[in-house]
Amino acid sequence: MNIITSIFLGFLQGLTEFLPVSSSGHLVLVQSLIPGFSQTGVLFDVFLHFGTLFAVLVFFRKEILKLPLRYYLFLALATIPAALIGYFFKSQLESLFTSTKLVGFALLVTGLLNFLTDKTESREKELSFKNTFITGVAQAIAIIPGISRSGTTIFASVAQGIDKKTAAKFSFLLSIPAVLGANILEFTTHGLNEIGNYTYYLTGFVFSFISGLLAIYLVFKFLTQKKFKIFAYYCFILGILAILL
């Protein structure tokens, strides 16, 4: 890996983490399909996720500390399904990150969810323990590479009658415990000694942070302008290409 690779993957991760197009799916495709491109490893991906985590904290910095206790309980409850699956099926899940065809079919599913989100009218139903838990189950399904975490969780909330802006905000904040949990698990498993050149990892972190901020802004903009179907078309095209290649 070199500095150009770190910049490219950092920018790609930040942009695709919050845009509903699956960051994990894009990384699998890039690492598998570009000739001569070496696998960067799970820990490098974790550092990229740290960059997007920081982007969420900065974007919502004025709101996070003002959220009511009930909202934090919603986030905790919604985190449980993915945490359980990630902990107990970690080795099985890692094997999924080698199949480009799986990513292709998963992207088609993501595209469909994005299309349905765009066509669903916003309602004013409030967050509850029931609907946030269902959104958490959707997040657990999104562990599969190619299934967008943001796209799936936003759709799950909107389909239950949650306002689109509220759904997007909950999806982004829900990424905080998810990313923290994944980082803790990976550092516990691999340790810091396997990281290697810190320059590449920190570069990836910075660029994933910057592009993550941009992506959050774009999601809100596209949701309010009813242009979410653009992401659906993108996922359909990329998914078909991944299956054929």
Automatic annotation (TrEMBL):
Function noted in UniProt: Catalyzes the dephosphorylation of undecaprenyl diphosphate (UPP). Confers resistance to bacitracin.
One GO term describing the cellular component: plasma membrane
Family (UniProt): Belongs to the UppP family.
Catalytic activity as recorded in UniProt: di-trans,octa-cis-undecaprenyl diphosphate + H2O = di-trans,octa-cis-undecaprenyl phosphate + phosphate + H(+)
Pfam families: BacA
Annotated protein name in UniProt: Undecaprenyl-diphosphatase
EC number in record: 3.6.1.27
Keyword terms, alphabetized: Antibiotic resistance, Cell membrane, Cell shape, Cell wall biogenesis/degradation, Hydrolase, Membrane, Peptidoglycan synthesis, Transmembrane, Transmembrane helix
Additional notes on this entry: Bacitracin is thought to be involved in the inhibition of peptidoglycan synthesis by sequestering undecaprenyl diphosphate, thereby reducing the pool of lipid carrier available.
Organism: Candidatus Woesebacteria bacterium RBG_13_36_22
Keyword Metal-binding: no
Any one biological process term the GO annotation gives: peptidoglycan biosynthetic process
GO MF annotation list: undecaprenyl-diphosphatase activity
Transmembrane segment boundaries: 42-60, 72-89, 95-116, 170-192, 198-220, 227-244
Recorded topology in the membrane: Multi-pass membrane protein
Cell location: Cell membrane
